[in-house]
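For reproducibility, we list the full input for the flavin-adenine dinucleotide complex.
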Amino acid sequence: MKPAAFRYHRPPTLDAALALLAEHGDAAKLLAGGQSLVPMMNMRLAQPAELVDLNDLAELARIAQAQDSVEVGALARHRDVAASALLREHCPLLAEAAASIGHDAIRNRGTLGGSLAHADPVAQLPLVAVTLDAQVDIAGSRGRRSLPARELFVSVMTTALEPDEIIVAARFPLRSPGEGQAFRAFERRRGDFAIVSVAVSVTLDGDRVARARLGIGGVGPVPLAFDELARRAQGAVADEAWARALGAGAARAVDPEDDPRIPAEFRRELVETLVARAAVDALRRATEQR
Ligand SMILES: Cc1cc2nc3c(=O)[nH]c(=O)nc-3n(C[C@H](O)[C@H](O)[C@H](O)COP(=O)(O)OP(=O)(O)OC[C@H]3O[C@@H](n4cnc5c(N)ncnc54)[C@H](O)[C@@H]3O)c2cc1C
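The corresponding predicted structure, in tokenized form, follows.
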């Protein structure tokens, strides 16, 4: 299949890219890794008249430590996020989740900004951004703004981005001392999109939970953070029974769609198992941190 005809632009600077978006409005689409957009163009689900390729904006591919976060540029490839020593040290959840995306070819080209903008409800990187409450930095022709990831995702493949805006980076909080993080997903075949994916973070104070964070993808139109459930974990003895209870609580808290191919009850069972397993992993890693 071939895409509909389009004009190709390869701006040398962010300002030039923003000017193209301002000029062409809805008719323009940004191209990053092309791993979601190009198949959609080939299937004629997307027919942009103007394609604005971001791949010359090398400054958007940086991964760097900021004051209390790791700043990951929008053009950072999944492969580089997975391999980043900085992220493995300070935000291992993001590196672990990126390593589990699709296949090598997808990870070699796909980018953080593309994944956030595409906003697939089971995609790994949006889930991590929501779970850790990351901030997304956005440039537009009328200036810059920063949005919590939790406000970026509006619905299935729909974000709060304006047509003239570009995601430039996302900032993920640094892991605290004594914090363990873990990602788990269930997919039918290796490399497929997950049916359910979960992210858990646990910070220990002695043998008790000082803080927990829980995010789940695949149970709603956007990845969801379960702050109240995680807050209730505070002060609990951090052991396997706690991890199992968190899984059971999560299964009660979710309200997944009842799809004839994937019944709600199946997703609920996946949530229970995956959350419990991720919580066990996070506990073990938190213990290793001490
Ligand atoms: C076979 C296959 C399997 C896959 N499996 C998975 C998987 O398991 N998990 C997963 O999470 N993903 C998976 N993906 C998707 C992959 O992660 C994509 O790379 C990602 O969704 C989009 O990133 P991209 O850089 O390729 O963006 P593109 O395809 O270039 O763009 C996607 C959308 O984002 C917009 N965009 C891109 N960059 C920006 C920016 N900086 N600011 C604003 N808008 C922007 C584009 O205009 C477009 O609308 C898979 C893809 C394929 C083809």
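The chain has a mean pLDDT of 96. The chain has twelve helices and 14 strands. Both points were considered when choosing residues for closer inspection.
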